[in-house]
Design brief:
The chain is of the alpha+beta class. It is built from 17 helices and 22 strands. It has helices at residues 3-6, 22-27, 255-265, 268-280, 318-331, 347-365, 367-388, 413-430, 433-447, 454-464, 466-474, 476-487, 507-513, 517-529, 533-543, 549-560, 565-571; strands at 45-57, 62-73, 80-85, 90-100, 103-108, 111-117, 120-126, 136-145, 151-154, 166-169, 190-197, 203-206, 210-214, 219-228, 235-238, 241-246, 249-253, 289-293, 301-302, 307-311, 338-340, 450-452. The strands form 5 sheets. An 8-stranded mixed sheet has the order 5-4-8-2-1-11-14-13, with no helix packed on it. A hairpin with a 4-residue loop joins strand 19 (301-302) and strand 20. The protein starts with a helix and ends in a 21-residue tail after the last helix.
């Protein structure tokens, strides 16, 4: 990996693509970061747009697909196009089309699928000599999907309504290469369009700014008018209906869930969007809709542009619904508009989004709400640091990937909470929260619809606060503070002035409605370590049936490691649980 991306410097050595001139865009490839999670040769091409034609077949669990990529070749002597793909994709044919001196020509192209990692393959397409540098051409790929990690097929009995089959896709981090061949790296963004055919009675939604439905042909058409990375393309198809919850927001859910989903979010989403706009600038994606997915959805929520995916189980908790939806709203600025250029710096999206989420909750619900949520998360971070140790490579903000490592496996509390701590540290350096809000607004305006590295953020920060740049130049210790946060796993996190002055907790009612490991685990540990262990045991006895089995095991282990474990287990003996399986690290990781 290039040294410039292993160790941040304080000189702006990487030209940022602004999109203001075609020549700038074409020449920007020399500055592309290295992404070892991508098999593609994305540095050799400019993708201007791509289109998908999808025919979804629920009985066979297949999608017959045609993909059209509009490309520009950037470098001479480029003999092949390499796309990220997956062994589950059956590539039926590949063709090229371009306009030459003799008019528009089309050629069938030879191709092969080479192994890359366990999470993907490389699709190597041999290009004709007629494709010249800086010329536009199209690649047309006909393929069929099978069971890949991005595509989730659900039988009716696995949905909330038990009436119709269901399909959703999940692209983060590197899964969408099993949905469509692509430059599957956050460094590359483009617009896209799609045409989707489904059986009658199935509603299709996508993360797009425009959508239409041809009722006669039962065809949905979508258009994403702003450039996005491949992982943010998402599709859901099933028995879905909607209700408006604001002037630019709609909630989608299965019919049996729509009433409660509407009641929970009606009017509040617009309030959160308005607060975010006041802090970080205009919302640029036009619509913000939310779709509630069945419990099989593998994470809590996903920030797909225009259409947040969120698990329906969260409707049981008002507080978690608030926190998670606001977090995904924050991604509209940090992650979707301005994206980390490599997966080694995921904190550029998640850390900034977490900071923005807490600024929004402070503005809408007050400092006490934000402080309580932050305290529990940072406590969990300290526990994970103790578990992994300061020297663990996973505990660094700027993780150095090894070939073959799936970026999704490194999504953990450090990405979110240590990223938040670094952003909070930057806000403290400038000395004023409102001034830092202004910096973030300017940062989004400058870098929107591009992908950045840490150097871009830090250089822009020092340029926005020139007095801090002077201190950094004259003070090596100030420079090392940046590097220490990014490149080490130190547990000496900066002390955050959260002003937690005896916030009262009603433990029984809190545990009755909170069912996430994010809060319940740390609270049980604190209660068992003090004088309130009896309350903890009684509360667990009353609420354990509402908890996920992994969380129940974790809490039972907390009891077992405290004093008199035999008495605890006797008290709970009428609620046996299989505690023989160890708790894996992923059970303490929290994805947003």
């Amino acid at each position: 990996m290039a040294a410039a991306f292993e160790r941040p410097t304080f000189c702006c050595c990487r030209k940022v693509v602004t999109g203001s001139a075609k020549s700038e865009r074409l020449n920007s490839s020399r500055d592309c970061p290295v992404d070892i999670a991508s098999a593609s040769n994305f540095q050799h091409f400019q993708i201007q747009h791509f289109h998908l034609e999808l025919d979804i077949n629920f009985p066979s669990r297949e999608i017959q697909a045609v993909e059209v990529l509009d490309l520009v070749c950037l470098q001479p002597d480029t003999q092949s196009l390499v796309l990220d793909s997956h062994q589950s994709l059956h590539i039926r044919s590949v063709n090229a089309k371009c306009r030459c001196n003799s008019g528009e020509n089309s050629w069938p192209l030879s191709h092969r699928l080479d192994p890359f990692t366990e999470y993907g393959s490389s699709l190597v397409i041999n290009l004709p000599a007629a494709i010249k540098p800086l010329s536009n051409f199209q690649i047309i790929i006909r393929y069929t999907t099978a069971d890949g990690p991005a595509i989730w097929w659900l039988d009716p009995e696995l949905t909330s309504g038990n009436s119709k089959p269901f399909l959703f896709t999940h692209g983060h981090s590197v899964c969408n290469r099993s949905f469509f061949p692509c430059f599957d790296t956050p460094a590359v963004k483009s617009t896209y369009s799609a045409t989707v055919m489904v059986p009658p009675g199935i509603r299709v939604l996508m993360s797009a700014t425009r959508s239409t439905f041809d009722e006669q042909e039962n065809i949905y058409r979508f258009q994403m008018e702003y450039p996005v990375p491949a992982y943010l393309l998402a599709l859901v198809a099933g028995d879905l209906i909607s209700a408006d919850i604001g002037p630019r927001s709609r909630v989608w859910a299965e019919p049996c869930l729509l009433k409660i989903a509407t009641a929970k979010l009606n009017g509040t989403v617009e309030r959160w969007l308005s607060a975010a706009e006041n802090l970080f600038g205009p919302y640029m994606w036009e619509r913000y809709d939310v779709v509630f997915l069945p419990p099989s959805f593998p994470i809590v929520a996903m920030e797909n542009p225009c259409l947040t995916f969120i698990i329906s189980c969260i409707l049981e908790s008002d507080e978690f619904l608030i926190i998670d939806v606001i977090h995904e709203i924050a991604h509209s600025w940090f992650g979707n508009a301005v994206t980390n250029a490599t997966w080694e710096e995921m904190w550029l999206s998640e850390g900034l989004a977490t900071y923005a989420q807490r600024r929004i909750t402070t503005e809408t619900y007050g400092a006490a709400f934000t402080c309580l949520e932050t305290t529990f998360r940072l406590e969990a971070l300290h526990r994970q640091l103790k578990l992994l140790g300061d020297e663990s490579p996973v505990s660094r903000l700027q993780v150095k990937f090894e070939p073959g490592v799936n970026p999704s496996s490194l999504m953990n509390l450090f990405t979110y909470e240590k990223g938040f701590c670094f952003v909070y540290y930057l806000s403290q350096l400038c000395g004023d929260t409102k001034c830092f809000d202004s910096f973030l607004r300017a940062y989004v305006e400058k870098f929107k619809f591009t992908s950045v590295v840490a150097t871009d953020l830090l250089e822009f920060f020092l340029g926005f606060f020139p007095e801090l740049r002077e201190k950094c130049v004259d003070n090596k210790e100030a420079q090392l503070s940046f590097l220490r946060f990014l490149l080490t796993g130190t547990s000496e996190l900066f002390e955050l002035n959260l002003k937690l002055n005896a916030i009262p907790l009603q433990y029984s009612s809190f545990f009755l409605f909170q069912t996430s490991r994010m809060y319940t685990g740390p609270l049980y540990e604190d209660l068992c370590a003090g004088t309130m262990k009896a309350i903890a045991i009684e509360t667990f006895y009353l609420t354990q049936n509402r908890l996920h089995v992994n969380l129940r095991r974790a809490i039972q282990q907390i009891f077992a490691h405290s004093a008199n474990p035999a008495a605890v287990m006797t008290f709970l003996e009428d609620k046996p649980s299989d505690a023989s399986n160890p708790i894996s690290l992923r059970d303490v990781n929290v994805s947003a």
